[in-house]
Amino acid sequence: MTYKFKNRLGYTIYHAVLFALLLLSLNSLASEYVGSESCKTCHTEEYEHWRQSHHFAAIAEATDETVKGDFNDSRFTYNGVTSRFYRKGDGFFVLTDNAAGELEEFEVTHTFGIYPLQQYLIDFPNGRKQVLGIIWDTRPKEEGGQRWYHLFPDSPSMSHGEPAVTSKDPLHWTGIYFNWNSRCASCHSTDLKKGYASSENRYDTQWSEISVGCEACHGPATSHLAWVSQQEGSRQSHAGFGVSLVDEGIWKTVQDISQGDATSPTLKRSGPRADVQMQQCASCHSRRLELGQPDPRISYYDTHLLSLLEPPLYHADGQVRDEVFEWGSFLQSKMHHEGVTCSNCHNPHSLHLKAEGNALCTQCHSAAVFDAPKHHNHPTESTGSFCVNCHMPSTTFMGVDTRRDHSLRIPRPEQSAAVGAPDACTQCHSDQDAAWAQSNIESWLNATGKKLAKHPFAEAFHAADSGHADAGPQLLSIAQDASLPAIARGSAILRHAPFHNQQSVEALSKLLSDPEPLVRLGALRSMNTLPLQLRYQVLAPHLGEQTMSLRVEIARLLAGLELNQIDARHKKQLDALYDDFIQVATYNGDTPESLISLGQFYIDRQEYEAAETALNQAVAVAPRHENALLSLADFYRRTARDAAAAPLLERAVTAAPDSPAGHYAMGLFHVRQQDYEAAANALRVATELASADPRYAYTYALALDKLGRTSEAVGFLRQWSEAHEPDPKVNQVLSGLLAKQQK
Prior knowledge:
This protein is α+β, with helices and mostly antiparallel strands and 743 residues long. Among the domains are: 59-187, no CATH class; 277-409, no CATH class; 456-530, Leucine-rich Repeat Variant, CATH 1.25.10; 659-742, Alpha Horseshoe (Serine Threonine Protein Phosphatase 5, Tetratricopeptide repeat). Helix content is 42%, strand content 10%. The strands form 5 sheets. Strands 1, 2, 3, 4, 5, 6, 7, 8 and 9 form a 9-stranded antiparallel sheet that branches. It is globular, with a radius of gyration of 28 Å.
């Protein structure tokens, strides 16, 4: 929930309460948690359901009962390294490659997950736990399971989209991306405290309950136990919990106005929305950044920053592309718009579906209308007759984990093909194309007098993502359309960043007052392209924004302001925003991404000593992180210490040889050293790795010109212009080179 206050006292009290909850000490908060065993006496059925769930098995100590993998002296070879899994006494061990690429014995301390795969945790110095990259496939053998496999297979038959990794790769299991403390832990245990000490680069991670227990969702239960013993008339609200997860909505039949007196074939919800319940699920089932200690008593948008619908996470039509989990997809759906909740389909304790097959959907959708060949146009009980196969197509992650898209969409084969997205029809009918599927759908609909409406934002998003110069007006129209999902509107205005003009800046001011946090988030993130003073002019009325995920964005956008040149009221508001930003970045100070962001914030504030500390910490936390290395190198460049930048650039290119950014930065370094031959070589590699980037193209051409190879530079830019969308800077450089040739 988002609060608005009429005076500074209310504002101050709000933030005092918020941060008191976010920053409660370990002892005081842990004392409120009592453990799931305390719940089973009164809630026997729910407790037993939970014991069957993936939540219960989210993490466990490695024992004969919990370990599913073959540790009977089994072997697995990956990228030339043979790992061995074996027992020593009661322990489970693996002999595998360490960070130096040498075989080393490690003891498995915990299991991680249960089905369709199980991962294993290994203790490292300084309180770290790392997740082994070799995984046990827990599916039955007849389904291809009961085997070891690697998360990034070197076999093309089960490619995850990444090449096989070595010990030098940032994606090696000993690196930052497989660190349990920072990347996994908070969603696999109850009341987890990272306990990260940046000064020592070490963890003292603690939890109240090892797995995802009752209180992970409901919150600490001390007050609930006290509530049980209270008299009926004196009991607290929500049964003593900070919030209630109960869905009080009722689904009932209603009249379909378009059909006269006929009853609608779909039930409609009455009663309040269950946003608290769904935000609690979203806290883990979403692609997001944690802003502080997660707490069920605090709104999702005050503790998390949700990723919008942008590449490479989503396709242009909003279908899942990367591992985004469910919330961002579900927010796009008509189901969410109509008030459907997670617990309408899933048992919240066992996590099982409430019904099998189409019976799940016909809880609300008439079976006579929708579970019939006249609707799905497939034989009854065939693959195509099941609702989910058309409306919730699946994508496989982590090699074997098949997950369904929760945007619950109508298949639009031709439009999907046009924007480079998958479609449900040809996923099954792999021997056919999108035109065939589209023709069949249109034929079915024509027989009923209906037409297939176009997707509301797919084409506009695809045009923007492809760099089309005419995408702006449609994006702005989508952002201003209150009938569309908030996440789509926010994603539209985010994409509008390259197209901002006077009209869109005026629209930004209105969107920043939109009641939906995700619309305001997209508007804020789109403002990166505006000059600093214009940002301030637009954001000045919104410096009192109360939602934490938006406050940190405002702070980042206005970090470069000279506070002595603005009025005292705005200065005080900005100081509070800056404090919030630093608090959030420090909370995530064990990840290079947050430390890089903090370093840039301090650079904008012209606090260079603090910036250098943050950027050095980013490299210390992740020594092979390309962006951390490049950010520190660029800091040295801007502070006239290019000699210190050189080894960092070399490390960046070594860490990510297939990334253009490092080669481009190395090329610019050589330009500054006036070594144009080396510059041209590095910039050529960058253009080969990212051929569509106009900046790489014209910089490479300028380096060629410096070597006296002007004709070659002209020819290169002409070829580039023929193959890509027109770019004004490329045209400008090309015109200059042509003029030079004519002299």
